[in-house]
Design brief:
By secondary structure, the chain is mainly alpha-helical. It is 81% helix and 0% strand. It is built from five helices and no strands. The radius of gyration is 25 Å and the shape is elongated.
């Protein structure tokens, strides 16, 4: 656990905020699927469901969720991309606040010894 935290501390903060919840969701998803499979197999229901759905690579039960998830991922990426650039767009004109903030930031960096 200590080595995992050390590796995560080397990553930029944004990646940490993305990878940590992703890891929890991935592990939780695997555990949930394994639990459901075990319960359905022990109850004898899983074989009936599998035969009824006739799951193959070209089955609509596989293709439709695949394309829905793909569309959702692309839409999420595009919306996040647009929101990011809307939030962090920079104007070409320096405002009075920006100039004053730059002075304060330079003083703070000087005190901390950061270049």
């Amino acid at each position: 656990m200590k080595k995992i935290k050390q590796c995560l501390n080397r990553l930029p903060l944004l990646l940490q905020y993305i990878l940590i919840p992703f890891g929890f969701c991935l592990i939780g998803g695997f555990l949930l699927v394994a639990f459901l499979y075990a319960v359905l197999s022990l109850a004898g229901i899983y074989n009936g469901i599998e035969n009824t759905l006739n799951l193959k690579a070209s089955s609509p039960w596989i293709i439709i969720p695949l394309f829905v998830c793909l569309f959702g991922a692309v839409l999420s990426f595009l919306l996040g991309f647009l929101m990011y650039f809307h939030k962090y767009k920079r104007s070409s004109a320096k405002t009075k606040f920006s100039q004053n903030y730059g002075i304060v930031l330079a003083q703070e960096k000087k005190q901390l010894g950061i270049k």
